[in-house]
Amino acid sequence: MFVSRSRVCLTVFFAVGLITSSVSHAADTAATPQQERMKTCNSEAGTKKLSGDARKSFMSDCLSGKTAAGSTTAPMTAQQERMKTCNAKASEQKLAGDTRKQFMSSCLKG
Q1: Of 70, 13, 21, 68, which Cα lies nearest the Cα of 41?
Q2: Which of 8, 10, 59, 61 sits most deeply, having the most CB atoms within 10 A of its CB?
Q3: What does the alpha-carbon distance between residue 38 and residue 100 come to, in Å, rounded to a whole number?
Q4: pLDDT tens digits along 56-98
């Protein structure tokens, strides 16, 4: 079976073109978190019928995460809450090193 060199080159060129096309299309359709936040904030500003300086201020706050629509952080889990509380207590007591480790261990266990 003899395949001409030009046919192999054409096949490779076609395959590379398909791969490049599909990769660039996937990149175009996937929205970044910033784009999603912009979409959400813009939608909420439209719902509230904001315009002018009020809209500009709302969009700024929303995109920076100062409003519920712009917030991207999920609520803390029980373990995260416990860690935060124990860490605050250890800081209040000015614990450091092994003493802090022991305190955190016992605090996190309950």
Answers
A1: 70
A2: 59
A3: 42
A4: 888 888 888 776 655 555 677 888 888 889 999 999 999 999 9
